[in-house]
Amino acid sequence: MTFLTIDAVSKRYGATSALDEVTLHIQAGGRTAVVGPSGSGKTTLLRLLAGFDTPHSGRITMDGRLLADGASAIPAHQRDIGVVMQDGALFPHLSVADNIAFGLSGSTRHRTALVHELSDLVGLERFMLERRPDALSGGQQQRVALARALARRPKLMLLDEPFSALDTGLRANTRKAVADLLQAAGVTTVLVTHDQAEALSFADHVAVMDSGRILQAGPPRELYLRPKSAMIASFLGEALILPATLSDGKAHCLLGSMATHAPGRAGSADIMLRPEQVSLSFHGPGVPCRITEVEFGGATSIITLVLAAGGNSPIILRQASDARMIAGADAWIVTSGCAHVLDTVDERRSPKQVDCMESPD
Ligand SMILES: Nc1ncnc2c1ncn2[C@@H]1O[C@H](COP(=O)(O)OP(=O)(O)OP(=O)(O)O)[C@@H](O)[C@H]1O
Predict the structure, then answer these.
(1) How much is the pLDDT for 350?
(2) CATH domain 2-223 topology
(3) pLDDT level of residue 108 (50, 70, 90 thresholds)
(4) Where are the transmembrane segments (predicted)?
(5) What is the DSSP string of 208-253?
(6) How many CA atoms within 13 Å lie on the side-chain side of 22?
(7) Domain residues of the chain, as ranges?
């Protein structure tokens, strides 16, 4: 069931079109991640949902209630929406307990009981409740911000890069704890993040934005395996993108012929392989090549290869490190699975693709 409908919403700041006819349907109880490069409009979308700003045109409806119809909008405090921003935005002069209970009505006993329930829920130790926010770690502050937002029993939770201040280990733990918590509470959630791995693991629905538009939205696995364009492919992870000729349900490219899921297509197209579909063998069979460069990176290394057949650009792959990976060694490229045929030939190459791509020169 659709809980939140964003319908052709546009927002301009002067000459900048921050959102351009954005349409998105969010399911009740679902977790949606909005990803995209810096300046693509993610925070603007969240701000319009929260009611911190109004659209120039378009409608936002939540649970059958019209929140915004162009510039006519319900104020933020009447929306039943919880917001956790990047920095947590806690009140520095209040204790953790008072931060969580801020603005809540009811008796002191009732408020204390609620603060205890919520601090248990987000994994904050009781002794921390009397501290000021600056005496907590970044991860603990995020948990306070989340408890404060949950205290109002929001129908919708908006998270704007809430884990970005945390280091890698704490980030993964907090993300998992928050995802479990929101699921248990049945709160529909929208997460904005730069981090594609975070989006793919946190959400059950991912929307990729660029230049104020939603380029593609769908379940994480579908977006990862079936991106429409090279930009989306490389934004959601490493990708080997190659030019190919399509015929008879196969893609013919410099790594040989591979089956595709697009049997009806013919002619020239870009195809995409994910790194898990490409491996290096030191004894064949496969496509013969020579290693020209190895950049050791611990568990994985970045390998530059030229095909023995010659005539083609080098290929750069990330592979699990192996002592046999040395410049000058002969190897064979082995591919598996189907090649994914991209809808568009995208000229733009994201820097991310450098990890696993056909070299531009
Ligand atoms: N208050 C504002 N005044 C003028 N321009 C703005 C304002 N807020 C956002 N913009 C512009 O709108 C566009 C979208 O900005 P937004 O903050 O939504 O992007 P974002 O995807 O959240 O970026 P980031 O990932 O860097 O936070 C950008 O070009 C930005 O410069």
Answers:
(1) 36
(2) Rossmann fold (3.40.50)
(3) confident
(4) none
(5) EEETTEEEEEE-HHHHHHS-SSHHHHHHTS--EEEEEEEETTEEEE
(6) 34
(7) 2-223, 229-358
- Find the 85 Cα to ligand 1 centroid distance in Å: 15
Q: How far apart are CA 108 and CA 110, in angstroms?
A: 5
CA of 43 to the centre of ligand 1 (A): 7
To test ligand 1's pocket by mutation, which of 16, 19, 56 has the most ligand atoms within 8 angstroms of CB? 16
Residue nearest to ligand 1 atom 5, measured at CA: 13
Please state the three-class secondary structure of 69-81 as a single string.
ECCEECCHHHCCE
305 touches 290 (CB < 8 A): yes
- The H-assigned helical ranges of the chain are 42-50, 96-101, 108-122, 138-151, 168-185, 196-202, 220-225, 230-235
The angle subtended at Cα 73 by Cα 72 and Cα 78, nearest 5°, is 155
Q: Is the CB of 39 under 6 A from ligand 1?
A: yes
- pLDDT higher at 170 or 205: 205
pTM: 0.84
Whole-Å CA distances, 263 to 222, 247, 268: 18, 8, 14
Decide if 29 contacts 6 (C-beta within 8 A). no
**Residue length of the chain:** 361
Q: Is 84 within 8 Å of 46 (Cβ atoms)?
A: no
Q: Is the CB of 43 under 6 A from ligand 1?
A: yes
193 within ligand 1 shell (Cβ under 6 A): no
Rounded CA-CA distance 77/154 in Å is: 11
Question: Is 297 exposed, middle or buried (CB count within 10 Å of its CB: 0-12, 13-18, 19+)?
Answer: exposed
Give CA 12 to chain center in angstroms: 24
SS3 (DSSP) at 343: coil
353 pLDDT higher than 50: no
Is the CB of 35 within 6 Å of ligand 1?
Answer: no
Query: At residue 340, does pLDDT exceed 60?
Result: yes
pLDDT at 210 over 90: yes
Measure 348 CA to ligand 1 centroid, in angstroms.
21
